[in-house]
Specification:
It is a single chain. This protein is mainly beta and 639 residues long. It is 7% helix and 24% strand. The chain has a 23-stranded mixed sheet, with no helix packed on it. Strands 1-6-8-10-12-14-16 form a seven-stranded mixed sheet. Strands 30-32-34-36-38 form a five-stranded parallel sheet, with no helix packed on it. A hairpin with a 2-residue loop joins β4 and β5. It is globular. InterPro entries: Leu-rich_rpt (IPR001611), Leu-rich_rpt_typical-subtyp (IPR003591), LRR_dom_sf (IPR032675), LRR_N_plant-typ (IPR013210), LRR_R13L4/SHOC2-like (IPR055414), RLP_Defense (IPR053038). Keywords: ATP-binding, Leucine-rich repeat, Membrane, Nucleotide-binding, Repeat, Signal, Transmembrane, Transmembrane helix. It comes from Anisodus tanguticus.
């Protein structure tokens, strides 16, 4: 009986030994060192790494035959119990990760606060790596040359970090690479010509870096490329004609560089036939918009804004019947809008501002039934009146017709847009008469700009009905009376909807005691300068907790400065010059630590200027013209 018990215990021991698993020593050390480098893991995944069998650890995957670790899958964004989770890890990546030399996937993207560098020897020790995802962390340093030895690499995500230095010249050796995303870093230097050897590449994203030089001449060799984004760099010279050979390309973003020369794509029909999104804005492109642009029949968005393009808009644009957004602003385009524009039936947004386009507008625009936003500002249209057909476009919600030569009173036809209009800009025209009372019926209006016109009389009290108004700009007119109705506007939002208010350069003569009392407490920009306002600056102005700019200069405001203004810690610009303010500058204003611009000159202030920042940062001109003021930066006070 005793022998049977001993035999049973021996079998049990042997079974336990045989069934106990442990990692390969290299894998175990590499993962333990990785965990040791992490000071905080909000997901709690690393806390579960306790036994010696790392193949059972969360986020770790092993090959069933070899038992070696092949995946580290610990992304910051993942799903747990069918709910999305954003995890954060604080710490530094251990170079010991290269001990796991059977790794095929490393995904530690979007962990937000993970630091460190790519191990210099990564390419020497991880020959099987197919995917490397470091995106959305705080990694720094150069991209090691050994990356080029990762011959099996298919996906490389290094975007949104702090990597610096140059792209490795040898990057063309990664023949299996399909996705190369290194955008949003601080990489400099040229794009290596060898990158054009990556013929399997489908996505190349290098935007938001400091890259210089030209776009590689043979970029057209990347026949599998579907997405090319080189925007927001400092690339120069011309756009290579070989880009027209990218038959699979769908997204092409070259905007915000210093590219020059003419637009030479596509060269002939059939090229770039899959292109849906083309951004070339904010460059130095010249010449005309080519007629061949009409071959890009798959285009949905086209932006050529802010270049040096001249000549007329080609009629072939009408062939782009899938286009939803067209941006041509800030060029030197001339002539009339082509009638063919009426064929772009899917168009939602048309922006052609700041050119020299002439009138009349083609009536064919009236057939754009889906058009939501129209910007024709600052052209040579000399419209005189707004065409009635324009105001009857059924989807129109944003109208920008600044500087279009519109004259007379505002047309009542605009009332038909009462339930749809979100933004209306008729500034810098020759409009006159009163602002109509029906303006208060535009119940969804968010932005209203009537500045630089010749409006007279008072602001209609009906503006109090504009519950969604966020921007109101009426500066440089001949308006008079009270400004208080604006501060009493109803709002759907707690603290009010109004964030930007400019009533400067008019003839308002009221007191301003309603500021901060009517529920509009989210104002960030408030300019009432160059009027005839009187009375005191109310204590209630201290309730504007988001205020960044306050300009009440060139008025007739008197009495003392309210101490409550010192509580507006967000204030960056305070302009109160040329008034009749009296008394001392409150000591509480020393709390205005964000103040960057200050002018209290030409008032009747007195006493010692409070000593300390921010006042010590301003010149004497900020306080001059107040006979009773003294102390730095003015001469010292007399004892």
């Amino acid at each position: 009986m005793g022998y049977q018990v001993l035999w049973f215990l021996l079998l049990l021991t042997l079974t336990t030994i045989c069934t106990s698993k442990s990692c390969h020593p290299n894998d175990l050390k590499g993962l333990q060192d990785f965990k040791a480098g992490i000071r905080s893991d909000t997901s709690g995944r690393l806390d579960k790494w306790k036994n010696q069998d790392c193949c059972t650890w969360e986020g770790i995957f092993c090959n069933n035959e070899t038992g070696r670790v092949v995946q580290i899958n610990l992304p910051g964004l993942y799903t747990s119990a069918d709910a999305p989770v954003q995890a954060t890890m604080i710490g530094e990546l251990s170079p010991s990760i290269t001990l796991l030399n059977f790794l095929e996937v490393i995904d530690i993207g979007e962990l937000v606060r993970l630091t460190g560098q790519i191990p210099p020897s990564i390419g020497l020790h991880l020959p099987n790596l197919r995917k490397l995802n470091f995106l959305g962390n705080k990694f720094t340093g150069a991209l090691p040359q050994s990356l080029c030895k990762l011959s099996k690499l298919e996906e490389l995500y290094l975007q949104e970090n702090g990597f610096s230095g140059f792209l490795p010249l040898c990057i063309g050796r990664l023949k299996n690479l399909r996705r190369l995303n290194i955008n949003s870093n601080i990489l400099s230097g040229a794009i290596p010509e060898s990158i054009t050897s990556l013929t399997k590449l489908e996505s190349l994203c290098l935007q938001d870096n400091l890259l210089t030089g030209n776009i590689p001449e043979n970029v057209g060799n990347l026949q599998a490329l579907k997405e090319l984004d080189l925007s927001n760099n400092s690339l120069t010279r011309i756009i290579p004609s070989s880009i027209s050979k990218l038959y699979s390309i769908s997204i092409l973003y070259l905007n915000a560089n210093q590219l020059e020369g003419e637009i030479s794509l596509p060269l002939k029909p059939g090229q770039l036939s899959s292109l849906r999104f083309l951004r070339l804005q904010n460059n130095r492109l010249s010449g005309t918009i080519p007629q061949t642009i009409g071959y890009l029949t798959s285009l949905q968005r086209l932006s050529l804004a802010n270049n040096q393009l001249k000549g007329s808009i080609p009629s072939s644009l009408g062939n782009l019947t899938s286009l939803t957004e067209l941006y041509l602003s800030y060029n030197q385009l001339s002539g009339q809008l082509p009638r063919s524009i009426g064929r772009m039936s899917d168009l939602l947004l048309l922006s052609i501002s700041h050119n020299t386009i002439e009138g009349p507008l083609p009536h064919e625009i009236s057939s754009l039934s889906n058009l939501q936003s129209l910007d024709l500002s600052y052209n040579h249209l000399n419209m005189s009146t707004i065409p009635k057909w324009l105001m009857h476009l059924p989807s129109l919600s944003r109208i920008y017709l600044a500087g279009c030569g519109i004259r007379g009173e505002i047309q009542d036809d605009l009332q038909v847009l009462a339930r749809s209009l979100l933004e209306l800009d008729l500034s810098a025209n020759h409009l006159s008469g009163r602002i109509p009372a029906w303006i208060g019926s535009l119940s969804w209006l968010y932005s209203l700009n009537f500045s630089k016109n010749k409006f007279v009389s008072e602001i209609p009290s009906t503006v109090m009905n504009l519950e969604n108004l966020g921007v109101l700009d009426l500066h440089s007119n001949k308006l008079e009376g009270s400004v208080n109705a604006v501060f009493q506007m109803k709002s759907r939002f707690e603290g009010g909807s109004l964030t930007y208010l400019d009533l400067s350069d008019n003839s308002f003569s009221s007191v301003i005691d309603q500021i901060g009392t009517g529920g509009q407490e989210n104002i960030r920009y408030l300019n009432l300068s160059r009027n005839f306002l009187k009375g005191r600056l109310p204590t209630s102005i201290g309730t504007l907790k988001s205020l960044e700019t306050l300009d009440l200069s060139y008025n007739g405001l008197g009495s003392k400065l309210p101490t409550s203004l010192g509580n507006v810690s967000t204030l960056e610009r305070l302009m109160l010059q040329k008034n009749q303010l009296t008394g001392r500058i409150p000591e509480e204003y020393l709390k205005l630590r964000n103040l960057k611009e200050l002018n209290l000159s030409d008032n009747q202030l007195e006493g010692k200027i409070p000593y300390g920042k921010p006042f010590l940062d301003f010149p004497s001109s900020s306080f001059s013209g107040n006979r009773g003021l003294c102390g730095k930066p003015l001469p010292p006070c007399k004892s």
